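Researcher: We plan to redesign the surface later, but first we want a full-length starting point. Tokens attached.
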């Protein structure tokens, strides 16, 4: 198997056309013997770009239904840097369960493994494998090949950036102090009403700061905005809290900080 993966990387290095990447993805699916392999780039303007082996009907339905807004894998990966097994995502909401049932009905598979990728200027992409298997079978597969898949994901993203250079996000515009405060409190786990109280502003004003920050960051939603701000070093959860209104101290390194 690893000889096949090494040959894939060699072919990837020599690739210079988008259609060749699609052919390589198909060959990778065959080498790994899984149902699907997908590379999915979420651009800053909300457009989705990528290639993979999902049925075209499902790919179109995903866009038409705007499933990106309810997909727990996408929202979960915004907050993570490490690979994610779909079983460990939060599928408890009615929208998420309906989306999951629809995806299985369209042949996506009951198991999945996604690697979040971050590139220059906050570029964000996902490399995903999905399959129909038992929990034990899937756990054994991901344990055996996780390191190889991480390498492949990042090499594939680098090649996509090289071929589609025009899609690389522009540098992020600086956030105002209030926008930093708003995202910092949300990143700590506070609700919007709690964050507004801590900032001594109305929820309406808070929403304006959040939307302004989201626009500057090119984020799809608030979770994405917080994740992007963290990845770019624009906010620091815990350490930034010591300068919060009211002077309450934050505890360095905590992600769930409460006023003392």
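Model: Full-length starting sequence:
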């Amino acid at each position: 198997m690893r000889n096949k993966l090494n040959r894939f990387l060699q072919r990837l290095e020599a690739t210079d056309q988008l259609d060749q990447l699609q052919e390589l993805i198909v060959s990778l699916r065959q080498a790994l013997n899984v149902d699907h392999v997908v590379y999915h780039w979420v651009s800053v303007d909300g457009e989705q770009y990528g290639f993979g082996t999902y049925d075209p009907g499902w790919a179109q339905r995903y866009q038409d239904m705007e499933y990106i807004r309810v997909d727990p894998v996408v929202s979960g990966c915004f907050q993570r840097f490490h690979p994610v097994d779909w079983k460990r995502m939060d599928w408890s909401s009615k929208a998420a369960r309906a989306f999951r049932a629809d995806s299985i009905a369209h042949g996506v598979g009951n198991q999945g493994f996604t690697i979040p990728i971050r590139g220059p200027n906050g570029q964000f992409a996902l490399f995903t494998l999905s399959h129909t298997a038992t929990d034990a079978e899937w756990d054994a597969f991901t344990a055996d090949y996780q390191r190889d898949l991480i390498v492949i994901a990042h090499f594939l993203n680098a090649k996509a950036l090289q071929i589609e250079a025009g899609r690389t996000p522009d540098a992020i515009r600086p956030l105002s102090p209030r926008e930093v405060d708003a995202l910092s409190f949300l990143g700590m786990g506070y609700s919007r009403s709690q964050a507004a109280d801590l900032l001594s502003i109305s929820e309406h004003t808070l929403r304006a700061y959040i939307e302004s920050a989201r626009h500057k960051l090119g984020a799809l939603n608030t979770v994405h905005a917080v994740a992007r701000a963290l990845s770019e070093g624009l906010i620091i959860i815990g350490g930034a809290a010591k300068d919060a209104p009211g002077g309450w101290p934050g505890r360095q390194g905590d992600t769930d900080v409460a006023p003392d």
